[in-house]
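Quick one, T. Sequence first:
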Amino acid sequence: IQILPDMARASLLEHCASVRPQGPSGLPIVGETPGWDNVYVANGGGIKGVLLSMGIAQAIHDLLLAGRSALPLNLPGV
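C-alpha coordinates:
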Protein backbone atom coordinates (compact mmCIF):
# COMPACT_ATOMS: atom_id res chain seq x y z
CA ILE A 1 0.00 0.00 0.00
CA GLN A 2 2.98 2.29 0.49
CA ILE A 3 3.92 1.77 -3.15
CA LEU A 4 0.37 1.57 -4.58
CA PRO A 5 -1.94 3.50 -2.23
CA ASP A 6 -5.05 2.77 -4.34
CA MET A 7 -4.70 -0.91 -3.41
CA ALA A 8 -6.23 0.00 -0.04
CA ARG A 9 -9.58 0.47 -1.83
CA ALA A 10 -9.22 -2.40 -4.32
CA SER A 11 -11.66 -5.32 -4.46
CA LEU A 12 -10.66 -8.89 -5.14
CA LEU A 13 -12.40 -10.04 -8.33
CA GLU A 14 -10.80 -13.42 -8.84
CA HIS A 15 -8.10 -15.56 -7.28
CA CYS A 16 -6.16 -18.25 -9.09
CA ALA A 17 -3.19 -20.13 -7.66
CA SER A 18 -0.98 -22.98 -8.79
CA VAL A 19 -1.92 -22.68 -12.44
CA ARG A 20 -0.70 -25.82 -14.20
CA PRO A 21 -0.73 -27.01 -17.83
CA GLN A 22 -4.06 -28.25 -19.12
CA GLY A 23 -5.22 -29.60 -22.47
CA PRO A 24 -7.65 -27.60 -24.64
CA SER A 25 -10.52 -29.91 -23.67
CA GLY A 26 -9.79 -29.52 -19.95
CA LEU A 27 -8.83 -33.19 -19.70
CA PRO A 28 -5.31 -34.49 -19.02
CA ILE A 29 -3.20 -35.34 -22.05
CA VAL A 30 -2.17 -38.96 -21.66
CA GLY A 31 -0.97 -41.47 -24.23
CA GLU A 32 1.67 -42.52 -26.72
CA THR A 33 3.13 -39.66 -28.73
CA PRO A 34 2.29 -39.87 -32.45
CA GLY A 35 5.35 -40.27 -34.63
CA TRP A 36 7.64 -41.42 -31.81
CA ASP A 37 8.35 -44.95 -30.63
CA ASN A 38 8.20 -45.57 -26.87
CA VAL A 39 7.49 -41.93 -26.00
CA TYR A 40 4.49 -41.25 -23.78
CA VAL A 41 2.87 -38.06 -22.53
CA ALA A 42 1.34 -37.70 -19.08
CA ASN A 43 0.58 -34.02 -18.59
CA GLY A 44 -2.19 -31.48 -18.48
CA GLY A 45 -3.90 -32.31 -15.21
CA GLY A 46 -4.35 -28.61 -14.61
CA ILE A 47 -5.26 -27.53 -11.09
CA LYS A 48 -6.50 -31.06 -10.36
CA GLY A 49 -3.25 -32.73 -11.41
CA VAL A 50 -2.53 -34.14 -7.96
CA LEU A 51 -6.07 -35.48 -7.68
CA LEU A 52 -5.87 -37.05 -11.14
CA SER A 53 -2.32 -38.38 -10.76
CA MET A 54 -3.33 -41.92 -9.80
CA GLY A 55 -5.56 -42.26 -12.87
CA ILE A 56 -2.90 -40.77 -15.12
CA ALA A 57 -0.32 -43.16 -13.66
CA GLN A 58 -2.70 -46.12 -14.13
CA ALA A 59 -3.26 -45.21 -17.79
CA ILE A 60 0.51 -44.97 -18.45
CA HIS A 61 1.06 -48.25 -16.57
CA ASP A 62 -1.58 -49.96 -18.72
CA LEU A 63 -0.13 -48.54 -21.93
CA LEU A 64 3.40 -49.62 -21.07
CA LEU A 65 2.47 -53.14 -20.00
CA ALA A 66 -0.55 -53.96 -22.18
CA GLY A 67 -0.40 -51.44 -25.03
CA ARG A 68 -3.88 -50.14 -24.18
CA SER A 69 -5.81 -48.65 -21.30
CA ALA A 70 -9.39 -49.10 -20.15
CA LEU A 71 -9.36 -45.42 -19.19
CA PRO A 72 -10.35 -42.88 -21.86
CA LEU A 73 -7.26 -41.12 -23.16
CA ASN A 74 -7.01 -37.61 -24.53
CA LEU A 75 -4.02 -37.20 -26.82
CA PRO A 76 -4.41 -34.78 -29.75
CA GLY A 77 -3.93 -36.49 -33.09
CA VAL A 78 -4.67 -40.00 -31.80
